[in-house]
Amino acid sequence: MIKYIDMHCHCHEYSVEELSRFIGKNISLVCVSDDPVSSWKTLELKKKLGITPCIGIHPWEAHKYSEKHAKEIVELAVKNNVKCLGEVGLDKRFVSKTYDRQLRIYEIFLKAAKEYDLVLNLHTAGAWREVYELLVKNDINRAYFHWYTGPLNLLDEIISSGYYIGINPAWKIQDKHRKVIMYASLENMLTESDAPYKYKGLELRPDYVIETVEYIAKVKNIQVEHVLLKINDNYEKLFKSPL
């Protein structure tokens, strides 16, 4: 059975029982982490539920950690055969005061992604250009821009570089994201929830990816099944492995 994919979920904030219910709805979860503690929790969820784990340090948490902590997370990823670092990246919109620390930590994850051929599950708020240019500079092959709301002209460059963007249920209330969905090619889309984040009264949930697939199909005037197949294909290309 072809699965729905949630490419960016903070699974460590849910109970195992709650996650099991989402998985029971035929949703495959890619679980991101915020810091060392949640990275360990995500690895435990991999053992219990078979989710796809991403471990890292969120830019919002960067002020609490050093390059040493980032290197320890890289070591943890390699030791546990984790193929994805996330949530990692840069943020100039919400936490610009810690940008220098964010950058030092992000550069460690960039080097690791290059050395070990890892996926980067990226936070890029207000720093879309900076994140992208560092990917190119470091010759990164596999990257995913979570909940993309950046400039459309940069989107052209992201797509031409073979990177992927996240389509989030925020399309329900966010006009900027709806424009991205209209503009972007299905060839470079993946669905996500960013659950359990609350955005302007919208409580994001993994099962909203089902409605998101339906919305993409409507916007692109194609069959839901075709969107679902392509999202699965994109996941497999990004991770170089089947679900």
From TrEMBL:
A divalent metal cation 1 binds at residues 8, 10, 87, 194. The keyword Metal-binding applies. It comes from the Archaea. InterPro entries: Metal_Hydrolase (IPR032466), TatD-like (IPR001130). The keyword Transmembrane helix does not apply. A divalent metal cation 2 binds at residues 123, 146. GO terms for molecular function: hydrolase activity, acting on ester bonds; metal ion binding. Pfam families: TatD_DNase. Gene3D superfamilies: Metal-dependent hydrolases. Keywords: Metal-binding. PANTHER family: D-AMINOACYL-TRNA DEACYLASE. This is TatD-related deoxyribonuclease.
